[in-house]
Amino acid sequence: MQKLPLKDIIAKIKNEDIFEAVSSDYSFTLKIDKYVPYACAAIHDGHQFRKELWPNCIHTEYERWYEEDPETKTMIKSHPIVIAGCDSRFEYDLNRAPEAAVFDTAWGKQLWHQPLSEDMKDKSLRKHNNFYKVVHTLISVLESKFGFCTVYDMHSYNWKRWDREVPTWNLGTSNIDNKRFGEAVENWRQSLSEIKFPYGIPSTSKINDTFQGNGYFLKYITNNFKNTLVLATEIAKVYCDEYDYIIYPEVVRSVENQLRNLLPKNALDNYKKYSN
What we know:
This protein is 37% helix and 20% strand. The chain has seven helices and 13 strands.
């Protein structure tokens, strides 16, 4: 993987180059093995946390990890186009609008001993801004080339914090055109319900049960591109012990192996239906 400045990453996308890179500030990665009418994103996969922020942060590393989406990039790594965040959402949240992306409080708890300076915030927001410049370029090229594309926006959530039964998979669709894309959403929900997990872990999938798809990543793409469907896809953290800070790699691998087939099939079905 090569390290590239923003302008070179954007130029390579516009030229439809094949490449794999980390941004020169190490804030995100992008892999393009082939230009296809779908892309995968894991914007909350990152755990990096700028060292100058450490002394001022009240939350522990575990508390940050608990609210991140570990291994979501691993689950989609085999697909041709994968963009992923490297930084923790506690530094800046790529799924929030710029004015709300740097938290003062996080999940009901004060985040900083002392309020962040404007300079500290600006450092983080520059990375947020650069990420969306790349996203905009990427979706522009895919829409122009294919006429339609699907973006699989992968997240995870802490299922043990809920006091009711919750699904293994949740699709958030409240900010997409459900009249137009309802069939595509249901097809993806059905595909996810067919995933088999080790150890008898159930595989259930619902729409707008735990989350409704209110993230900025989905909204940004949906508002700027009329022929791109974003499927905000949340997996319950059945692939780890969210309290004991343990990942179950065999569960992650099982999900990755099954998405390797299910995901491109769904994307191709969407392309055939909506590209004309």
